[in-house]
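User: Please run a holo structure prediction.
Assistant: Happy to. Please share the sequence and the ligand.
User: Here you go; the ligand is zinc ion.
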Amino acid sequence: MSTEEKPQFEHDCKDCTFLGRFEMQHGPTLPMEPCDLYVCGVSVIDTVIARYASEGSHYVSGLIFATRNLIPSLVEALKRAQAKGYRVPDDIRNDPDRSPDVEITD
Ligand SMILES: [Zn+2]
């Protein structure tokens, strides 16, 4: 297993599956910050998560931030979760504010 495939921060949810590492800039003048991507759920996605540090609250989550194309790390987590066969729940799939730029696959 390469280091790329291992989480760099602690995350203690047993329903989460690690999706790999990612880097994201939180503002145009800020440096790139590494994070760990996760999907929470069994075969249908409950939420997607990007963790920036091991402290409990240092993460962002919410499937809607991915499907509305608001947080790039969560868009990437959604893409990777779908590649692993996870499905997007129908209410999120049918969200009227869903971004046309974010692909939802079956
Ligand atoms: Zn979880």
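Residues 12 and 56 are 9 Å apart (CA to CA).
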